Amino acid sequence: MRRLGAAVTTAIAIGFGLLTLIGLLAGSSIPLVGTITDFLLQLIVITTATTILIGVLNLFGVHLRRVGRRETGWGYSLLVVISTLLVIVLAVLERANVLTGQPSITSILFETVQVSLESALAGLVLFALVYGAYRLTRRRLTWPAVLFVFVLLLLLIGALPLPGLGPLASVRDWLLAVPVSAGARGILLGIALATVVTGVRVLIGQDRAYRE
Amino acid sequence: MSDDFNELRPPEGDDDNWLDWQADDDAEQSAASSGDRLGFTGELSWRQDVEKAFSDQLDEANDDAFDWQPDTGTDAPQPDDDVPDWLAAFTGDEPAESEPAVDLPPWLSQFGETEPEDEAAAPAPLGDVPAWLREDSEDLPGQPVEPAPGLETPPWLSQFGEAEPEDEAAAAMPAADVPAWLREDSEDAPAADLPPWLSGADEPEAAETPAIPGGDVPPWLAGLDEPAAPVEDDDLFAGLDEALGIAPGSASAGETPDWMGAFEEPAAAEAPPSGLDAYLVEEVVDETFFDEPPADEGVVPDWLMAAAPDTEAAEPAAGEPIAGDLFSGWMAAPEPEEVEEVEELPAPSDELFPDWMSAPDETEAEEAPDLLTGWEAARQALDTADEELAADEGVPDWLAAAAPPSEPATVPQDIFGELGLPSPETGFDFLDNPPVEAETPDWFEPEAAASAEPGWLGELGELDLSSAAETETAVPAEADFLAELRGAADLTADVEPPPAPDYDLSPPSFDDLDSLIASYEAPEATPEYRALVDTRIDDIERLLSDEDIGEIAARRAPRVEAGDISPETPDWLTESGVLVGGASAGAILRRQTERERPLEELDERLQALHDRGLDLPPPVEEAPSPDLKTLLPGVKEFIAPTPIKAGTTGIAGEVMLSPQQMDKLKLLRLLAPAEAPPQPQVPSALDQTYAAPSFADLVGEEEELEEAVEPVPAPRPERRRIQFDRLLIVLLVALAVVLPFFVGVLRVGDLPPAQFAANSRQQAVFDRVNALAPGDLVLVAAEYGPTGAAELDGLTEALLRHMLLKGARPVIISTNPLGLLHVQHILDRLTADAVFTVQLNRPLAANRDFYVARYLTGSVIGLRAFAQNVPALLATDISGRATNLATASLRDFALIVTIAERAEDVRAWTEQVAPLAGKPLAVAVGFAAAPLAEPYVLPDSPEKMGGIRGLLVGYRDAYTYRAQLGVVDAVAPGSIPTQPPAAPPTAAPASPAPADQDETAVEATAEAAGTVETTPEAPAEATAEAAATAEATDTPLVIVGVIDADQTVNVREGPARVFRAVAAARPGDRVQIIGRSGDGDWLQIRLADGREGWISSGLVRVEEPATPTPDAGAGLDPYAVVALESDVRWVAFQVTPTPAAESTAEPAAPPFDAADVVTGTPTPYRDERWYGMTLGLIVIIAVIATGTVINVIGSLFRRRGR
């Protein structure tokens, strides 16, 4: 029975994979296949959306339980619960056209709280990066480290809007256009090849990670 | 004495075995303790095995600590393994150090002959005192064990057992207190009779110590423990004391057994002197003493009765006490010279001698037919006993085993004769008899002794060693005891010739340091007495000598605090601080001095030892490891608290392990990590998710998860040291970014250019947006969140403004819900911007002028699903309202713009959407995503390929884009379709269509929409040219410059000297200024003949134009004028239509920041923000460069140093 189940799952995966592939390649030529492909893709989108909903509910439930049990940090959990309920209520009121102001209250909350906090935290990365570059060669002096710091300084200097740095700006542009772009292309090609290989393995039943 | 115990470390070669406790045992025990008992049986009894192993090891360690077995260097059990040291004292090792060969009596010398290895033995510590010795000091009456009937027990020994009632003995000494070997072999071993009177040898001064009450001693021996007790008038020693001139009060006294009462009564009846001393005196002085009538039969001990031919004459009076030092006194008065010394002693010298040493004499006495009536009778009795002993009946087995077969000639002939006592030939013939092997007690046999472990050892083994924390050095506290034994033996041997005994009999002796120190505190101790005790300090030094300490410290046995000693342990052992696991003289002294004596009175070395003991680390209380507690409950107590080292020796408290043992220990620790610090179990989000009640069905075992997520207080983070360099860097960078907002002088660098370079990727984006027709749908993907808002918001707002100005309708979607919300906020802000509304000349409304469609789930698959089914996913907006968009496919969108924060989003849109859209994308990204977006940029802009046609990067491009946006006019509201573009006549293909079909469809769509959008294949340049031409017709020349130079200057092809000169301009020529370089150093001019070129800005003087107003003239560009007025460096440029303008030059660029000028609402702090970025970048470069230079120099110096 177990072997039969494995065969069935493999057959389903291979069958739907081939069907989707064909539908993506020639969906318009074969309307039925195209329709099935669209349907399958929509299933994935709906499933993903459902998981997001479950995640939101679970998050709410976890914090609600922490508050109920007075666990460590339950005060923060209480804040999360209250915020969630508040935003949900406001969104419902806006949907019901009870709150019609522009911009909406939810948008104001989002911009003044969420965006401000995340932007501030992202700005702190600057200091960490600068200090990391400052200490890069402290512990161990290696040629790759020296090369990295040299290129970094060259790119930064080339980005300075100061007069007289034209040659450095040209060097910077060349670095970005040639070496950096070449490396990025190599990475993207590798990703593409790996994606193809993985798809082929799934289609031929060699890779059955979906059973796990 | 050396305090460096490290010097006492055993030889390296012995590391493997010197502490391998099992090595001294048999092979089976060794194997069980080393490997099998350490957890390899795989059974649940593993713990018990480990405990037993440790217990065995403890016992063995005790053996080592007590030096039962001297270091013989071999693993094979030695015959004297279990021979107590008090027996080892007979080995004659003492003369090897301090005195010449001593002529021991044959029965004593026999010990030395049979156990030569004892010469290397160190004195055992006090803790080695056997249980039966300790019992004597307990409150329990020290009743000897009842000897087995019938035996080879000499009469004088068996008489001891008979002297006391049997029931009394049973009540006085529980069987448990009797050593196991003693109990088991009591039937065969006459040595069982030894303990009671041996205790007197062990503790001659115990009478002064409360811990050694006389109650432990048989009443008739209690006097042994009370040397300083007041002497009764009728004391046995009274006569001797008087004869010797000793003060009556200084003589020891005690109760005498009943049978010894005969000494008193007759003596009292006759005249002083009385007692045995008197009897001895009489023996020496007055032979008539023996003519006294015999004592009452009922008083004479049975052993005397049995030994004497005429037992009737030796019956002592029952219940009458007898002086415990009867025989000691007898031994102590061998000759007048010594008697003279004794005269000066405040304490009786007989305490120096163990009573059992008096046994031969006592035996001699008991052999006497009438000990109480006269010496002659005793002599006769001894003669008779000699005959009996010839038949091997009276020799103690344990002595017989040690006695030589027959060496009567070696016995000093006059040893007793000098004392006036019967000689061995007459009175101790039984000692000369060959030993009877069959009667040798088991405990004396090495093999049997190994198995018949004394009970007191077992008691010690049960003690908890985990409490041992202080490191002490075991010191043989029994040294004096042994020394006394040796001294007694020497004394016996040195009677003839009478060399000065090694052991000074004059000062009071002591068995241990406890009694020594207590002697100072005794109320009867006089200064003279203390001074006399001080003379014995040499013994303490010997106790603490390197040799003794070395023997014990080398074994480093675990020790036990006195308070941890089990209740069964004798009080005197407990109070004396003797540590069972390794008696430490330091500990003893420290405790005693702390309790009883001020430290200042101690010897300097003792004070040093005291201080050193105080410096020892306190006991370490380790919290039980949860892992170990779960796996091996109870084992931790044996493993964790004991610090273990390999290969080094320090002060006690550490267990030394061999490499093999260390390997096993490592394995054990691996299996049961007792020392692993408890790790806080912080519940992860996943754990909490599974622990949620809603997931109870999915999880199934909620209880386990709840246990797992039990909140554990996080460990307190360690206080980190402030890193000043980091703090300095943070401050510098922060100040560099902020200060340009307030300090003008710090605004260094140039502002971004006002126009993108021609044919640049940025300009391509601008052109494509600028080419949108009113009513075109533009798909805008807002793939960024708040973290990228600072960098990308400017681009988003500029693009949206541009689209709305052109009358296009942006449709916003995103796979990032935050990005969608953020763009919605931007659109709301634009909608609320009154100035922008005036510029548009129409109000903005959602789902009419723009659409915030929806959030796409599923990432890449969601994008693909959207690309496959656009109408379904654009039916409603983010608020759930209908969009009324009549889109069938991606091809309904005139332009697709992706604003992404991550390169992955760019790749997803480029790969999943662009091919289906049939047109390249316009992408706006941050600097982080730019490198991976570069490869997707199509160099030649093939419109039919999926890729990126235009690319905007970061705040710099946003700045320039806003600047170029100033020249964009809003389309007339009437030109914008009021209805969304209808669906194309022919259904758009769901998949990429062939090129011809695509073109046809696009054209049809465009036509159906009624827009002026050019066909997709129309080049952007053409569109731009058309727009430029259209604008040019409306815009005259505004800026005029005059060549301000002394000579003719070159007009170059580009804004640098590297470009070739294309023309020349003479001073005073008027030129049209049509552009400016990014850095402002070069101006693009058009000469009168229509040729264009670049000239240095310092060579051109801009003429002051007439100040126009925005509505001054139809052909006047107001923006350029205002720009000139505000900042001459920012020269606006216009395309001047000239008749000769045939060139297909780039379309005219809009003037700088026209929109802001028009609306009067420039972006707040736009320039300041740019200057802040510039200065911050400078500081960052300086910091990194400085750090690198410092690090490189430091590294070079370090390398040079190496």
Brief sketch in words of this structure:
Chain A is mainly α and 212 residues long. Chain A has six helices and no strands.
Chart the SSEs and their pairings:
The complex is a heterodimer of chains A (212) and B (1202).
Chain A: H1 2-25, H2 31-69, H3 74-95, H4 105-134, H5 143-158, H6 166-203
Helix pairs in contact in A: 1-2, 2-3, 5-6
Chain B: H1 27-34, H2 46-66, H3 85-88, H4 94-98, H5 106-114, H6 131-137, H7 155-163, H8 166-172, H9 180-184, H10 194-202, H11 236-244, H12 261-270, H13 275-284, H14 302-307, H15 326-332, H16 336-343, H17 359-367, H18 375-389, H19 397-402, H20 415-419, H21 424-427, H22 429-432, H23 446-451, H24 455-461, H25 479-493, H26 513-521, H27 527-534, H28 537-543, H29 546-555, H30 571-575, H31 585-595, H32 604-614, H33 626-631, H34 636-639, E1 644-646, E2 655-657, H35 659-671, H36 685-691, H37 696-699, H38 702-708, H39 724-738, H40 761-770, E3 777-783, H41 789-805, E4 809-814, H42 817-832, H43 834-840, E5 851-855, H44 859-868, H45 870-873, E6 895-900, H46 903-917, E7 921-925, H47 930-933, E8 948-953, H48 954-964, H49 995-1009, H50 1020-1032, E9 1040-1043, E10 1049-1052, E11 1061-1065, E12 1070-1076, E13 1082-1086, E14 1092-1096, E15 1100-1102, H51 1118-1126, H52 1154-1159, H53 1166-1201
Parallel strand pairs in B: 1-2, 3-4, 3-6, 4-5, 6-7, 7-8
Antiparallel strand pairs in B: 9-12, 9-15, 10-11, 12-13, 13-14
Helix pairs in contact in B: 2-24, 2-29, 6-10, 11-13, 12-13, 13-15, 17-18, 26-31, 31-32, 36-38, 39-53, 40-50, 41-42, 41-48, 44-46
